[in-house]
Amino acid sequence: MPAILTVAGVSKTYDSGTTALSPIDLEIEKGEIFALLGPNGAGKTTLISIICGIVTPSGGTIDVMGHDAIKDFRAARRLVGLVPQELSVDMFETVLATVKFSRRLFGRSGHDAYIEQVLRDLSLWDKRHAKIMELSGGMKRRVLIAKALAHEPDILFLDEPTAGVDVSLRRDMWKLIHRLRTRGVTIILTTHYIEEAEEMADRVGVIDKGKLVLVERKTELMKRLGKREVLVSLREPLRAVPAALANWDVELADEGHSLRHSFVADGDRDGIPALLAKLRELDIDFTDLETHRSSLEDIFVDLVGRKDAA
């Protein structure tokens, strides 16, 4: 797929000498959902703010569909929608007026049918004449998304879009994001909720301490770095791991009543059948087993932890 956004060598160092971003290179494919993961203070919001023209970079270039986002800011910004973390609306204005005003800010007028569809998609149409101050926190978050979509952007940035909202509303937003993608909108989101990235993303980027640690397709990342774990319940407890299992990554659990074995998913050796065969060979009886495949959260914690230890 062609790149719709290209970030090349973008960095940010403040006057105080603090480096918020080391030089970052990143290409976003047209029509994909890209999730940027990282702990608090990692640089996620800084990177998005630079791309959207809110923060000035210390170096590097940004190309948005052929437009230099620094030199040709206005043309690039019209192609981008941003849903910020913080609520930034006039609390005394109505929902409909707020969204229409955002559309006019980008030089677009009319097209009431489009605005209506956006509000309906976000379950805001019935609240269109309500003042922002009258809405719940979740509805205010939806208004931010409506504002970002008002001028029909090709790229939508979502900075912690579901922070502080309930699970039901989070699921509704996930559905909306999928619908936007089917309409051709490219989505880039930052999140603390690992399940959001696991649920929606095509590719995942991990940023930590201002450095882009990894960018990879989600399926390939989980295949390459994911681990599986099997917990085998033993008929009789063991006092120690048998010497014949010394070359296996096994340990005793449940006071010797279980054996825990970890192995790389999709690795060269099929871990579970091979282990069970080995146990039979050693006359170790078992009664049950449970398996667990590592999630994207496990991989993320492992990556950041491994980097800290390096």
Keyword list:
about 300 residues, alpha/beta, Rossmann fold, Alpha-Beta Plaits, 2 domains, 6-stranded mixed beta sheet, 4-stranded antiparallel beta sheet, 10 helices, ATP binding
Structure write-up:
- Keywords: ATP-binding, Nucleotide-binding, Transport.
- GO terms for molecular function: ATP binding.
- This is ABC transporter ATP-binding protein.
- Residues 5-234 form the ABC transporter domain.
- By secondary structure, the chain is α/β, with parallel strands linked by helices.
- The protein folds into two domains: 3-223, 3-Layer(aba) Sandwich (Rossmann fold); 227-293, 2-Layer Sandwich (Alpha-Beta Plaits).
- The protein is 33% helix and 29% strand.
- It contains ten helices and 14 strands.
- It has helices at residues 44-51, 73-77, 95-105, 112-121, 137-149, 167-182, 194-200, 218-225, 271-281, 296-309; strands spanning 3-13, 19-29, 33-37, 59-64, 67-68, 80-83, 155-159, 186-191, 203-208, 211-217, 227-234, 250-253, 258-264, 286-293.
- The strands form three sheets. It has a six-stranded mixed beta sheet, sandwiched between helices.
- Helix 3 (95-105) packs parallel to helix 5.
- The longest helix is centred in the middle third of the chain and has 16 residues, at 167-182.
- It is elongated.
- The protein starts with a strand and ends with a helix.
